[in-house]
Amino acid sequence: MYKKSLALLLVSLMILTLALSGCSKPATETGSEGGGEEEATAADEIIKVGWMGSLTGDQAVWGQCELNTVKMLFEEINAEGGVLDGKKLEVIGYDTKGDPQEAVNVAKRLTGQDKVVAIIGPNASGNAIPIAPVLEEAKVPDIATVATNPKVTVLDGKVKPFNFRVCFIDPYQGAVAAGYGYDVLGFRKAAILYDIADDYSQGLTEFFEEFFISKGGTIVAKEAFKFGDVDFRPQLSKIKEANPDVLFLPVFFKEAALIANQARELGITVPLMGGDGLPSEQLFTMAKDAVQGTYIVNHVDYDDPDVQDLKTRYRNKYGKEMELNGYLAHDAVVLLIDAIERAGVADSVKITEALETADVQGVTGRIKIGKDTHNPEGKEAAIVKIEGDRYVFQQKYSAQLD
Amino acid sequence: MTQFLQQLINGLSIGSVYALMAVGYSLVYSIMNFSNFAHGGVIMLGAYFGYYYLTAAGLPFPAAFIGAALTTCLLAVIIERGAYKPLRERKAPFLYFIISAMGTSIFLENMVIATIGPTFRSYPEVLSRTPIQIGSVSVGRLDLTMFFISAICLALLVFFIDHTKMGKAIQATAYNIKASALMGINTDLVIIVVFALGGFFAGIAGVLFGMKYTVYPQIGIITNKSFIAAVFGGLGSLPGAVIGSILLGIIETITSGYFSSQYRDLIAFVLLIAVLVFKPSGLMGKVTEDKA
After folding, report:
1. Where are the domains of chain B?
2. pLDDT of B100-114, one tens digit each?
3. How far apart are the C-alpha atoms of B37 and B4, rounded to whole Å?
4. What single DSSP character describes residue B217?
5. ipTM rounded to 2 decimals
6. Among B48, B119, B140, beta carbon nearest to A265
7. What CATH number should be reported for the domain whose range is B2-119+138-278?
C-alpha cells in the first residue's frame, strides 16, 4: 500500500512539473460547457448556437482559434444588446478531434441534446461531409468555415438542404493555383505530393492536375503519403529526379513544414505552392527557412485594411495572432446573425430559409449564397507569398470554372 | 544509381529510428510476453522532456539528451509499478496487460494535450540542417548522428545483455520466468531493469525523433510502425528488432521510390505478412511455445 501511494505521488509530481514547464494554460477551456449555467432562468432570452471542430489533434490550433473568435464575437454582440431585440447569443462548442465519427456524434449531441438553432464549423471537409444526415433529420443548418471539398454542400448534383459554407471550394482553389502558377509565374512542370487518406488533399490534387494540364502544363511527378507519416524523403527523392518547376502541396501545415524541411535537405530548391491548408503561424515555428518564397492560395489578405480591426481585437483579447480560421469563423457569424435577424425568429428552419438568400459582406469578401450550391458565389482568392515570417499579399485572383 | 543510393540512405535512416523504438518493445516482450503499447507515450514524453531541458532549463545538448533519457527511464519504471505490477501480482491474463498498456498510452497523450497543449514545438537547431554531399547523394547530419547514436546504444545493450550478471539474469528470465525465480533470480528486479532500459531507449528515440520531426502529442503513432518492425524481426529478439526495423525502412523507401508511393504501405505490408506466413515467429524470433 505504501509503495502504491508513493508511485501515485511520483506520478502526480511529474504531471505537475509537466504542467508547470508547459508555462501557460491551454488557449481555451475546451468548451464542453459553453459557460451559461447561471442564466438558466432567462433561458427564453438565449439563442444557442453550436460550434464544432478540432480542439485536439493536428488541427487544434485552428479549431481553438475558431471557437475563440466565435466566443469573442458573441460577447461583443451581447454587450451591444444581442440579436432579435435583446436576445443573447451563447455558443456551445465541442471537440471533433478531427475524427469524422466523432463529428457525427457531436452533431447529434448539439442538435438532439443542446437544441441549438444552427451550427458553425467544422473546418475540415472530412468532418463536414458526414454530418449532413444528422442535420437533415434535426432540420438544423450548418455553416462550415474552411471545408472546401465540393461534397460538403452538394452531393451527386443535389444540394444538401442544411449545409452551407463561407469559403470557396477546391475546384476553384485548384484552378486558381494552376492558373496563377501557369499564367503569372510561368511554371510548366509541376510535381504534386499529397495525402492519399484525406478528402481535401485528394480533391485539390485532382482539380489542380486537371486545370494545370488543360492549360498546357505537365505533371512530372505525383506522389502520395498517408496521414501520420513524418518522413517524405523517399517521395521527395523521386520528385527531385523529375526536376519540376514547382512543388504543389495540397496538404496541411504540419506536413507542409516537414516536407519543406526535408525537400531543402535533399537539395530541392524550386518554389512550393499550396492551398488554404498551409497558412498558420505554426508553419514558421517549424520550417521558417524552408518555406521562404512559397505561394499560397488563401481566403484572406492579412494586410487588407478591412481585417486589421478584427485582428487587433483578437490579439488584445487572447494575446496571440489570429489564425486563418478565425477570419472565416467571423464571416460565418456575420452570415448567421444576418440570417437570424432576417428570419425574425430563432427557429432553425426559418434561419435555413434566410441563409439561402443571404448576401453579406465579410472580411474575406462578399458572401452571396448560391441557392443551388449553398456556396458563396464568385468569391476571389488572395494569393500570398511567404517572405520572412509574413504572408505578403500578391494579388486577388479569380479563375473561370466551367 | 544515384537515386538508388539516395533511397537506400533514406531507408537506413528511417529504419534506424524504427530500430531504437522497436528495441523497447522487444525487451519488454521477451520477459513479460505482452506488447507494451505505453512505449509510444514514453517516447513522446522523452521528446518533450528533451525539448524543455534544452529550452526552458537551458541545458547544453548532451546534458539535455541524457537527462531526457534518465527521466523516461524513471517514468517507465513508474508505469510498470503503477500499471503492470498490480496485474502481475494478481496473475491477470495477458489481455489485461495489453488493455492496461493501451490505457496508459491514451492517458499520457491526453495528459500532454491537457497540460502542455496540442501545438507543435520545434527543437532549437542543435545540428545544422545543411546536408553533407557525397557525390550527388545528400546525407543529413542529423541522420548520421541518429544512425551512430542508435548503433552505439544497441551495441552497448547487446554487451550488457551478454556480458553482465544482470544481463544473464534477463536472458534466464526471458527463457523461463518461474524457473529463474526458483533458481534465486530476483525476477522483480529484472523486470524493473528491463523497463528502465526500455524507458532509456524511449527517451533517446524521443529526443532524436523530436529534433528531426518536431514535437507534438501524437508522436507516439509512429511507434505502430516500429512495433510491426519488431514483430517482423521476431518479437523478443533484439537483433531481430534491429534487422526488422532496418528492413522495413528500406522496403518502404524502395517501394515508394521504384513502384508507387500510393501503394507503399500496401506492398510493404503484404511483404511482411508473406514473411510471417512462412515464418510465424518473425525473421529471428525463437519458436514460441506456450509457457503456461
Report:
1. 2-119+138-278
2. 998 999 899 888 888
3. 34
4. G
5. 0.77
6. B140
7. 1.10.3470
